User: Fold this.
Amino acid sequence: MALNSNLSNTYNFDPNLGEIVIGALARCGIRRSEITQQHLADARFESNLVQSEMAGEGINLWQVELHVEPLLAGVSTYNVPDTTVFVLDVYIRQNPGSGMPIDRLIMPISRSDWAATANKTMPGFPTSYWWNQQLQPTITLWPVPQQDGGELRYYRQTRAMDANLINGEQPQIPFAAYDYFTASLAVRLAVIYAPDRLAMLQPLKQQAYMKYLQASTESTPINMDVEMRSYFRVG
Assistant:
């Protein structure tokens, strides 16, 4: 596509956290010349809470990564990085070093399902997993892997990196989330400094959230066609 001389033809808008804080405080009626160290300290704290809030609202696609763990014979439980917010698709890869690896999806079970499993040490090819969501989370496979050489693979959403107001650091968010991040931070700061503006700022946050949600959701429907007969004996 030819460049248009009437447009900027640049894509450099990438504000740092300080700029976002200034924008959020402006929505609270606090101008740049009025910003104090207390404003900045509160804004940093609330910015990290915004990131925590965003993590709890659903899957942030830009924070999803693939984690690979070697399988060991006789070992059923594996540590999950403690920066994990959600565990998504989990599968076992056979023959990972070959030119034709085979992947098999495994199914999640609950703590109650795990407690009800009679033979927790039964060896075999893993067909299910229990994600134990402790401060040090783990994944427990069942049946227990019989041999070395395979891989436990899963997509996980990581927590956001800390948001800091130093050295021009930027929050770990994409372009489509800037408005929502600013709107959410403005609401949090308004609770402290401008409660009279909450009635105006809350709807703006909700509008920004809905637009952000559209941009952060996969555009394809979920279609899981799993051949269950390869996992369980029927009849």
The chain has five helices and eight strands. Residues 187 and 201 are 6 Å apart (CA to CA). The mean pLDDT is 90. The helical segments are 17-27, 37-57, 111-116, 178-193, 198-215.
